[in-house]
Amino acid sequence: METNGIINSAMNFNQQVELPKNPLPIVIIGAGGIVKDAHLPAYTLANFKIKGIYDKAQLKAETLKNKFDIVEKVYHSLKDLIEDGVKYNAVFDLAVPANLHAEILEQLPDGSAVLMQKPMGENLEEAKRILEICKRKKLVSAVNFQLRYAPYMLVLREMIDKGLIGKVYDMELKVCVYTPWHLWNFLFQLPRVEILYHSIHYLDLIRSFLGNPKKVYASTIKHPKMKDLASTRTTMILDYDEFTQARILTNHGHEFGLEKQESYFKIEGTKGAIKIRIGLSMDYPRGLPAKFEYILLEDKEKKWKEIKIKGGWFPEAFVGTMAGLQRHVLDKNLPLPHSTEDAYNTMRLVEAVYKSSDKGGVKSSSIR
């Protein structure tokens, strides 16, 4: 393949998921920040119809209806929303705390289509229960691991699938930012925070490329200025074979300005490399624009080049999870990569990481 051909084909990669030809209506359970900042903006972009929304805090739901024209109705009870959801043949969009998933899933009619916000329960036992419910009730179910569908990840996947960077043998995801955890008050009551509610996206993303690792090493610890919060700094190593490894390094307490903050996903292959700036995590919630750079060893210039990215993680990636589920509902021959069955494997990996951290490393004092 000629160098110019490589560059031109890379520059023309698709950055959008395919939408369903006849979209199903949606009913949303939950009206929190993630619905305001991501779900509803994404569904507006995709022209999805929202037949209704419900939240125990009715004022939140009313506020969102007033802000987003696509929301047709605010429901005063979950029961009424579910009944109308069945009548409209709607997809149920669960955007509630993870410990409420199982309770709501039990109330949905058998065979319903449902998209759950991550994580899939607060721990592996809850994940098992959710998976059992979905199988027993024959729900067409998926978990909202949307980072897979961010525009830059779609470009990355296509470049890898076309063999442009050769065989991938190294992945590194680093986050060194200042995250305003106070925006999510419920997290301060939980025994698990950073991995379960943030790095779970990165674990799922790496799994989507490399599969399940053979071995994991991990350490996750608290921050001295965030003593009321569970661990917010994590180092993870995922080993696959003698040549292939992935690393995730996160530090959410870098309060020293934007200049030295980092948020990137770097992929190295036998023919080239790619580096993506995941801008959302920097200066959150404002974020910075995404940036996609690549280098190909077959390129005579051997220089890093940039592909302009349209959009980012919020809200564009949230189109992908809902669109993928709807396309699968309408045509069962189409795959559902973020199904609950696949998400359960991500939850297994989360559990393995926590166990590795709890078990700890070798004590230096034991070496004589």
What can you see in these coordinates?
With 368 residues, the protein is α/β, with parallel strands linked by helices. It folds into two domains: 26-144 and 321-332, Rossmann fold; 148-317, Dihydrodipicolinate Reductase, domain 2 (2-Layer Sandwich), CATH 3.30.360. It contains ten helices and 14 strands. The chain has helices spanning 3-11, 33-45, 58-67, 78-87, 101-107, 124-136, 151-161, 194-210, 316-330, 340-359; strands at 26-29, 50-54, 74-75, 91-94, 113-116, 140-143, 168-176, 215-221, 233-239, 245-251, 262-269, 272-277, 291-296, 305-307. The chain has an eight-stranded mixed beta sheet. A six-stranded parallel beta sheet has the order 3-2-1-4-5-6. α5 (101-107) links the parallel β4 and β5. α6 runs antiparallel to α10 (340-359). The radius of gyration is 21 Å and the shape is globular. The termini are far apart. The model is unreliable at 1-7 (pLDDT under 50).
A few lines on this structure:
This protein has 368 residues and is an alpha/beta fold. It has two domains: 131 residues, Rossmann fold (3-Layer(aba) Sandwich); 170 residues, Dihydrodipicolinate Reductase, domain 2. It is 34% helix and 21% strand.
N-to-C order of helices and strands: HEHEHEHEHEHEHEHEEEEEEEHH
Shape: globular
Strand-residue proportion: 15-25%
**Helix run count:** 10
CATH class of the largest domain: Alpha Beta
Fraction of residues in helix? 25-40%
Number of domains: 2
The description of the largest β-sheet is:
8 strands, mixed
Our Rg estimate from Cα atoms comes to 21 Å
The named CATH superfamily of the largest domain:
Dihydrodipicolinate Reductase, domain 2
Number of E strands: 14
CATH structural architecture of the largest domain: 2-Layer Sandwich
Which parts are unreliable, with pLDDT below 50 for 5 consecutive residues or more? 1-7
- Report the end-to-end length measured between terminal Cα atoms: 57 Å
Average pLDDT figure: 95
Give me the side-by-side strand order of the main sheet: 8-9-10-7-11-12-13-14
Class by helix and strand content?
alpha/beta
CATH topology of the largest domain: Dihydrodipicolinate Reductase, domain 2
